[in-house]
Each structure stands twice: as C-alpha cells, then as structure tokens.
C-alpha cells in the first residue's frame, strides 16, 4: 500500500512539473531579438548559418518570465 501511494505522489509531482504553459513568439523580429539578448552564442551560430531556429517561446517559472528556444544544427 505504501508503494502505491509513493508511486501516485511521484506521478503527480512529475506531471505537475511538465505542465508549463508556453506562448510561442510568431513575429520574426521579436524572435531574433529575444534570441540575440537571451542566447547570444546561439544567435551567432544562427548568423553564421550553422543553426536553424525552430521556435522561440516564453513561459513562467517560479513567478519569473523566461524565454525558451528550440533549434537544430544544419
């Protein structure tokens, strides 16, 4: 019984962490500006053509606004 309760608590805590609401940035200029400010090393790779930016998004963690990015190398 204790193992079952422990497993339920573990599952609940893992699913609550993964439910972050992302807001995707659609404006190209805003995407590039956020990338330049928040991820300067990725921005330089993007400018050199070595990196493709798939998406830029904003989310909130611990009450603080954050920026996330998904990308892949060429």
Short description:
With 74 residues, the chain is α+β, with helices and mostly antiparallel strands.
Task: Characterise this structure.
The protein is α+β, with helices and mostly antiparallel strands and 74 residues long. Helix content is 49%, strand content 31%. The protein contains three helices and three strands; from the N terminus they run αβααββ. The protein has helices at residues 2-17, 28-38, 40-48, and strands spanning 23-24, 51-61, 64-73.
**Mean pLDDT level:** 88
Note the total helix count: 3
Main sheet? 3 strands, antiparallel
Low-confidence runs (pLDDT<50, min 5 residues)? none
**What global shape is seen?**
elongated
Topology:
Blueprint: H1 2-17, E1 23-24, H2 28-38, H3 40-48, E2 51-61, E3 64-73
Key words describing this protein structure:
alpha+beta
């Amino acid at each position: 019984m204790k193992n079952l309760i422990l497993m339920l608590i573990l599952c609940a805590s893992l699913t609550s962490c993964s439910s972050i609401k992302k807001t995707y940035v659609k404006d190209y200029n805003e995407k590039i500006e956020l990338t330049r400010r928040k991820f300067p090393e990725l921005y330089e790779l993007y400018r050199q053509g070595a990196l493709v930016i798939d998406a830029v998004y904003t989310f909130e963690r611990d009450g603080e606004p954050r920026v996330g990015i998904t990308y892949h190398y060429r």
